[in-house]
Please model this.
Amino acid sequence: QSVLTQPPSVSAAPGQKVTISCSGSSSNVGSNFVSWYQQLPGTAPKLLIYEINKRPSGIPDRFSGSKSGTSATLGITGLQTGDEADYYCGTWDSSLNAGVFGGGTKLTVL
Amino acid sequence: EVQLVESGGGLVQPGGSLRLSCAVSGLTFSTYSMNWVRQAPGKGLEWVSYISTRNSPIYYADSVKGRFTISRDNAKNSLYLQMNSLRAEDTAVYYCARFWDTTVYMDVWGKGTTVTVSS
Model:
């Protein structure tokens, strides 16, 4: 059971928009920055969003992040088949003194 | 180019030990905290352990506390994970990753090394 809660799967058509939620508590999402990671099949995770809504160099602005209270959201617009991957939210839990991840969301672009 | 390269994985019997290494290049290793993260087959990411720049503090996931030991050698630009009393549930791909303390994200990851615990 993951500390952060994500939907197991989401799907949308190419060109559409999708959002992935990440729910936590006051000791993790509520009090720390949230980051998002993309994991393509058979590869290592890649940082997608950090400090809630910043993108590393090379990540297109189709990807965005937001946070409200103890929940965070990843948004992806203009969906492409290459976006099919598993997406994870992550942060630090200040009470547990531990890194925490969501269980992951599998994105299918229909 | 920043690179993290894990090694040391393999097949080990339950109760056995392994030492994972993570060789870091392209950045000033001594100035960054590091994490180990693992992923069991078909499962999600699980944070394993954290070490700060000066070896303190160090934190572990409850699932490995007392069995795993994280360490670093800044002179060798290397991170380690000593894994003892291994269990079947420790079977996973193990990744090392650079960690930013204040903003709590991992921006550089290795490709991972596979640990299989089986008799």
User: Anything to note?
Assistant: Chain A has no helices and nine strands.
